[in-house]
Design goal:
Blueprint: H1 6-12, H2 18-29, H3 32-46, H4 58-66, H5 79-84, H6 87-91, H7 93-109, H8 116-121, H9 123-126, H10 128-143, H11 153-173, H12 188-208, H13 215-231, H14 243-257, H15 262-278, H16 285-296, H17 298-303, H18 314-329, H19 335-356
Helix pairs in contact: 2-11, 7-12, 7-16, 10-11, 12-13, 12-14
Length: 381
């Protein structure tokens, strides 16, 4: 049963990912050589390969084995439905990429407590594009057809992100500079809100843009991400069982977490600036902010002080016209729609490859982590 009252959600903020945390603690406790050995595993994932499991520490083998049933019939999942969850990304590749860039990423900044993890490392101000690429890589891997199969790239991306999160928790909690009032870094409530931003927000964003998503397709997409959430270390019993329930739970988490802070203001400014550069200045920073407001909603947008009004503007009207024309000219099931969806999917992949360069992100465990937030002894910037 999902914990929907404040007391239960507050308890989730005190919980990280015990299984993955145990792996990381044991590895770091064994010295740098053990850390490098475990990073051999993440490099194997980077190449879409896999190292010999016998070479892994026993605690890591146990962790990976515990997630083997997730998303499979052996674990009680409807495998055909999980596979069908990749249909929505295939049919809406360009809108999904747009929502990821202008919706999913900025909505995470609106969570004033969870965003402090990013503020701690300073990565959004210094490495905005790299962190975007890392996040997008995981999302694209999960959404890829076959991505959640036993050796699929989506399954492996979720596993390595889980280990990376545990690594970040390890160093932040030992820094002596983390405010315990924020909860455990990358805690269960924050992970749950992130999961819903990759699923609920994307379905609702495409619908608001005018996409006619069949109910079965939207639900299959959510179930695929529900499996991904378990692979990333979220306790299965707290994940909403269906899309409608997830939408309500997401709203509840948002009402608790959204609010302004110096950290999310700085990150939002950096993200708008990065997107402005990526489109070569063809769209103004104000228009980018307005598009973000359209996707993330009034509460999150107000927390980030984004420009615009709650009413739909030119961005929304233009995209709805495009969707209506697409649905009329290229109806679902037609050869023209199949060809168009294939072409746009390949276009997004090609664009993304150009953005990230020839190498996949490593998601390697850290060998150290420095607090980059402003302090009296360390001025901002």
């Amino acid at each position: 049963m999902f914990p929907s009252d404040d007391a239960a959600l507050d308890a989730l903020r005190l919980e990280g990912d015990p299984e993955a945390d145990a792996v990381v603690e044991q590895v770091y406790g064994s010295g740098k050589a053990a850390v490098r050995a475990l990073n051999t595993y993440t490099r194997g994932l980077e190449r879409n390969g896999a190292a010999n499991a016998e070479d892994y520490p026993a605690v890591l083998r146990d962790l990976l084995a515990s997630t083997d049933p997730v998303g499979t019939a052996a674990g009680g999942w409807d495998e055909a439905r999980i596979a069908a969850g990749a249909d929505l990304p295939f049919h809406y590749a360009i809108p999904l990429a747009l929502i990821l860039q202008l919706g999913t990423m900025p909505v995470l900044y609106a969570a004033r407590r969870g965003v402090e993890v990013i503020g701690f490392t300073g990565r959004l101000k210094t490495e905005a594009n790299r962190r975007s690429v890392e996040t997008a890589q995981m999302v694209f891997d999960v959404n890829r057809r076959g991505g959640l199969q036993p050796e699929g790239c989506g399954r492996r991306s979720c596993q390595r992100v889980r280990l990376m999160h545990a690594s970040v928790r390890y160093f932040i909690q030992r820094s002596g500079r983390w405010d315990p009032e924020l909860g455990v870094p990358i805690n269960q409530e924050d992970l749950l809100g992130t999961l819903y931003s990759f699923s609920v927000l994307i379905v609702d964003g495409i619908t608001r843009m005018g996409g006619a998503i069949p109910e079965t397709e939207a639900e299959a997409f959510y179930q695929r991400w529900r499996a991904a959430g378990e692979l990333m270390g979220i306790r299965p019993e707290i994940i909403a069982p269906d899309l409608a329930t997830a939408r309500r739970h997401y709203e509840r988490i948002q009402s608790r977490q959204f609010g302004p802070s110096p950290t999310n203001a700085a990150l939002t400014e950096a993200w708008i600036r990065e997107n402005h550069k990526s489109v070569l200045g063809l769209v103004s920073e104000e228009q980018i902010g307005e598009a973000m407001r359209f996707f993330i909603g009034t509460d999150a947008a107000d927390a980030l002080s984004l420009p615009g009004t709650p009413e739909d503007g030119r961005f929304a009207r233009a995209h709805r016209r495009v969707f209506r024309k697409m649905d009329r000219l290229f109806p679902r099931g037609s050869r023209r729609r199949q060809a168009t969806d294939t072409a746009t999917t390949e276009f997004i992949r090609s664009w993304y490859l150009a953005e990230r360069g020839p190498r996949r992100p490593t998601f390697a465990l850290l060998e150290g982590l420095r607090d980059r937030r402003a302090s009296p002894r360390s001025p901002a910037g």
